C-alpha cells in the first residue's frame, strides 16, 4: 500500500511537470453505470454517421479488454483555453481547440514520456496511451478519478478550471492508489447550455444528440449537411464552443501556456471573403499540423459554403 501511494504521487507530480492540468487515477474495471446509457444512446441513433461508436462495445466499457492485465486508468487533462479571436468578427469560426497544432500528437508524446518515467521509477510496467484513438470513454474515466462531473452539455466540468481541456488516458498493469471521491454535480438548475444550442442538440439534461451537434455536422458528417440546419450554425465552420462559452463554470478557465496551441498567424487574419475564396494551397499552409485537416479541404469548403446566406 505504501508503494501504491508513493507511485501514485510520483505519477501526479510527473504529469504536472509535463504540463498536464490535472491527473487522477481510477481502478480499471467494467463501467456498469455507463453501459445502459451508451446502449440507449446508440439505439436512438444519436451517433449519426459515427458508425465506429457501434464497434468494440465491450472494450469501451472495460479497459481490461484493451490492455492485458490492466489494473489502473490514469486520466489526464491538458488545458487549451484561449482568449484569442479571429480578427474579422464576420469570418466563419473555428473551435478554440483547433487554433494551433493537432493535440493528438502533442498529448500522445507526453503520455509516452510519462510512461517512460513510470518504467524508470517503478520497474517494467505494461501500458498503453490513449488520445481519442481507441474505444475509451474519456469523460467517464475522468469522472471516476474525481476530476469533475459530467455537465448537462455532456462535457466534463471542473469547479477549478471549467471545461476547456483535452482528456487522455494511460492504462497500466499495476495497482495504484485510487481517487475514489466522486465530484458532486454542480450544474444545479442552470440550463444555459441547453438554451444556447442553436441546433437543439442537447435534447435533455446530460443527453446530447450527436447527429444534431454543430461539431458533428462540421467534422464527423461526411455527406451534405441537412438543410434543416441552414441558418442555425451560428457561423461555425469547424467545431463549436457555444455550450462551453455560456457555461458559468468557464469563468474559471485559465489561459493555456502551450506554445503549440497558439493560433497560426494567418488563421486569425483571414477575412470572411478570404475564407469563402480559400484555395487548397492556403488550406494546406494554414492547417499543416492542425486538427482541422481531419475535415480535409473539401469538407471545410462544404461547411463554409453552407454558411452562405440563401
Automatic annotation (TrEMBL):
Superkingdom as given in the UniProt entry: Bacteria
Catalytic activity entry: epoxyqueuosine(34) in tRNA + AH2 = queuosine(34) in tRNA + A + H2O
Enzyme Commission (EC) number: 1.17.99.6
Keyword entries, A-Z: 4Fe-4S, Cobalamin, Cobalt, Cytoplasm, Iron, Iron-sulfur, Metal-binding, Oxidoreductase, Queuosine biosynthesis, tRNA processing
Pathway stated in the Swiss-Prot or TrEMBL entry: tRNA modification; tRNA-queuosine biosynthesis
Localization of this protein: Cytoplasm
Enzyme class: oxidoreductase
Chain sites annotated for binding [4Fe-4S] cluster 1: 187, 190, 193, 247
GO cellular component assignments: cytoplasm
Pfam families per UniProt: Fer4_16, QueG_DUF1730
Residues given in the record as cob(II)alamin binding sites: 60, 132, 153, 156, 167, 215, 240-241
Active site: 132
Cofactor(s) for this UniProt protein: [4Fe-4S] cluster; cob(II)alamin
Residues annotated as binding [4Fe-4S] cluster 2: 197, 213, 240, 243
Details of cofactor binding: Binds 2 [4Fe-4S] clusters per monomer.
Biological process per Gene Ontology, one example term: tRNA queuosine(34) biosynthetic process
Stretches assigned to coiled coil: none
Stated role: Catalyzes the conversion of epoxyqueuosine (oQ) to queuosine (Q), which is a hypermodified base found in the wobble positions of tRNA(Asp), tRNA(Asn), tRNA(His) and tRNA(Tyr).
Subunit structure: Monomer.
Family membership: Belongs to the QueG family.
PANTHER family xref list: EPOXYQUEUOSINE REDUCTASE (PTHR30002:SF4)
Name this polypeptide is given: Epoxyqueuosine reductase
Species whose genome carries this gene: Mucilaginibacter gilvus
Gene field: queG
Amino acid at each position: 500500500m505504501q508503494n501504491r501511494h508513493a507511485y501514485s504521487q510520483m505519477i501526479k507530480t510527473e504529469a504536472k511537470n509535463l504540463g498536464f492540468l490535472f491527473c487522477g487515477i481510477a481502478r480499471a474495471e467494467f463501467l456498469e453505470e455507463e453501459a445502459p446509457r451508451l446502449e440507449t444512446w446508440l439505439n436512438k441513433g444519436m451517433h449519426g454517421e459515427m458508425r465506429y461508436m457501434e464497434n468494440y462495445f465491450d472494450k469501451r466499457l472495460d479497459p481490461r479488454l484493451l490492455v492485458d492485465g490492466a489494473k489502473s486508468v490514469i486520466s489526464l487533462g491538458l488545458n487549451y483555453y484561449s482568449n484569442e479571436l479571429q480578427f474579422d468578427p464576420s469570418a466563419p469560426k473555428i473551435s478554440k481547440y483547433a487554433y494551433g497544432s493537432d493535440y493528438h500528437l502533442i498529448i500522445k508524446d507526453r503520455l509516452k514520456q510519462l510512461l517512460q518515467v513510470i518504467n524508470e521509477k517503478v520497474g517494467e510496467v505494461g501500458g498503453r496511451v490513449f488520445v481519442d484513438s481507441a474505444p475509451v470513454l474519456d469523460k467517464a474515466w475522468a469522472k471516476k478519478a474525481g476530476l469533475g462531473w459530467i455537465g448537462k452539455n455532456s462535457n466534463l466540468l471542473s469547479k477549478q478550471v471549467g471545461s476547456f481541456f483535452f482528456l487522455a488516458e494511460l492504462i497500466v498493469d499495476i495497482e495504484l492508489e485510487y481517487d475514489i471521491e466522486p465530484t458532486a454535480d454542480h450544474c444545479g438548475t442552470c440550463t444555459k447550455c441547453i438554451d444556447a444550442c442553436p441546433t437543439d442538440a442537447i435534447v435533455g439534461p446530460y443527453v446530447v444528440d450527436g447527429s444534431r451537434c454543430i461539431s458533428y455536422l462540421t467534422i464527423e458528417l461526411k455527406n451534405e449537411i441537412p438543410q434543416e440546419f441552414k441558418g442555425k450554425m451560428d457561423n461555425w465552420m469547424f467545431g463549436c464552443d457555444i455550450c462551453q462559452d455560456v457555461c458559468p463554470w468557464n469563468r474559471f478557465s485559465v489561459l493555456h501556456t502551450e506554445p503549440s496551441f497558439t493560433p497560426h498567424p494567418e488563421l486569425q487574419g483571414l477575412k470572411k471573403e478570404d475564407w469563402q475564396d480559400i484555395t487548397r494551397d492556403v488550406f494546406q499552409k494554414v492547417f499543416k499540423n492542425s486538427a482541422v485537416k481531419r475535415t480535409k479541404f473539401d469538407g471545410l469548403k462544404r461547411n463554409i459554403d453552407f454558411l452562405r446566406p440563401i
